[in-house]
Amino acid sequence: MDGLLAELKDRCRENLLPYTVRAFSLLPKMESPTIADIGCGTGVPTLELARLSDGMIYAVDTDNRSLGRLGAEMDRLGFRDRIRIINGSIDSPELPANGIDILWAEGLFNVIGFEKGISASHVLLKTGGFLVIHDEIAEENEKRTAIEKYGFSLMDSFVLNSEVWWDRYYSCLEKGIVSLSPAEDDKYGIEAALLEIGNFRKNPGQFRSIFYLLRKTRQTTPPPD
Fold first, then answer.
1. 225 residues of the chain, pLDDT tens digit each
2. CB of 212 within 8 A of CB of 157?
3. Which residue, 3, 12, 60, 82, has fewest beta-carbon neighbours within 10 Å?
4. The domain at 17-162+205-216 falls in which architecture?
5. Could you tell me the residue ranges of all domains in the chain?
6. pTM of the predicted model, to two decimals?
């Protein structure tokens, strides 16, 4: 995703950063934590984590264009020495096993599957480390079972309701798209964004989301089912 539409989405996504800040504030204070932002995209939360902490951050995503945008912003903001970009996913060999203090996943687990994400996170996190997940609201009982199965305890959680998503993101996107045209950006990207906005208007309840704050409480993983 390039150009003006990508800039617009990042600008609208920044309106949700207060909830990233809220989630981070609920974690114990740590000096120079090692953080992995998995599925970071263009890095809107990644850059906020760099502002919130004095630690080293692995920014991980499979999309090179998004990582290119993040790299440019890192240079502009002076974070090049504190953010390492990895073109990969949660199972990337470049991530240190049992070496992460905080693993951040905003939107990844609904793509790769919640249990797969929890299992891979267990491998990466130090015992006592923290996992922050921003996910869709669905199958909560199954998710809580997976949380316990893979040696995590639920510290806290909070919900972003549909009003938050409209006020903070979709209304911003809708207003911004008016100033774009297919000649200025990827017309298919614009069409997809308009379709998403239309789906929100039809069923806003499906666009609620939840932050989970978890702590890894044991080192061993469960045997396969």
1. 457 888 999 999 999 999 999 999 999 999 999 999 999 999 999 999 999 999 999 999 999 999 999 999 999 999 999 999 999 999 999 999 899 999 999 989 999 999 999 999 999 999 999 999 999 998 999 999 999 999 999 999 999 999 999 999 999 999 999 888 766 657 788 899 999 999 999 999 999 999 999 999 987 666 566
2. yes
3. 3
4. 3-Layer(aba) Sandwich (3.40)
5. 17-162+205-216
6. 0.92
